[in-house]
Amino acid sequence: MGLLLRWSGSAVAGLALAAAALAPPAEGQTPDADAIKRGEYIFNAAGCLGCHTDEKNKGPRLAGGRALRTPFGTFHGPNITPDPTHGIGAWTEAQFLRALREGRGADGSHLFPAFPYTSFTGMTDADAKDLWAYLRAQPAVAQPNKPHDLGFPYNIRALMMAWNWLFFSPGEFRPDASPTPELKRGAYLVNALGHCGECHTPRNFFGATRGDMKMAGAVLGDGAVPNLTPDPDTGIGKWSPDDLVELLKSGMTPEGDFVGSEMGEVVANTTGKLTDADRRAIVAYLRSLPPIRHHVRKPAAK
């Protein structure tokens, strides 16, 4: 996981696939079972469930409706089931890939970065197509989408052309020269699939993530999202790799507490469903980042 950013106060991966869509299988055709299975893993790694299911109000799975409040207004996660009227059943694979790669809707309109295409642009074609197979195999739900509630001028999609020109670099993720395959995999999981920086990196005035403060923590809504750099005082530098892997797996901290709120959702729906190898790759990559001293303080209650 506003108009120009995923400023939702949620550590859940942003409107994952907020405008992506899939066409249902043609009559008489069955999606490849292996692709669907792989796609389910990508779906979990990308955190799609949280923003597209209104779990708080017991809404139907992937039928949208979850409210994401931002400084620019409130976004509602859309229906991404294959329902042809209210969901994504009328989209094509090419349109789906364009949404991920370029942040463009089926009609060519610019999507708001509440859908984190700025990270998903780095997804490999193989992962994107497997995700397509998984989503198109899900049950269709005929639930209408809730419109976004954005104030002027943030509701003007055409403004996204200028924002993208300034702040968006499309293209498959290419990590810096990594000394190990584990670090390369971790970089991909954190920066593309998991889009962790959408919540854990501070943003500038225009809502774009700050490259000089990558993963250094941020204030989102009423909450503070922690610093994930290996700074020993304000980040994760004092945590052992095993401690971090356990947090991603079960949500348990070294003190025996358990994370809650949005991070609890991330563990339940995303990191807790990854393989141990992928969790360790994430930890290895985060520990390889430059340490940034940045103490994130929760905003004072109004």
Task: Describe the structure in brief.
With 302 residues, the chain is mainly alpha-helical.
The shape, in one word, is: globular
- Give me the secondary-structure category: mainly alpha
Oligomer: single chain
Regions with little confidence, pLDDT below 50 for 5+ residues = 1-28
Q: Strands of the largest sheet, in order across it?
A: 1-2-3
| Tally of individual domains | 2
| Count of DSSP H/I helices | 11
Helix content class: 25-40%
Terminal CA distance: 24 Å
**DSSP, total strands:** 5
Q: What does the largest sheet look like?
A: 3 strands, antiparallel
N to C succession of SSEs: HHEEHHHEHHHEEHHH
Strand content: 5-15%
* Spatial extent as radius of gyration: 18 Å
Mean pLDDT: 85
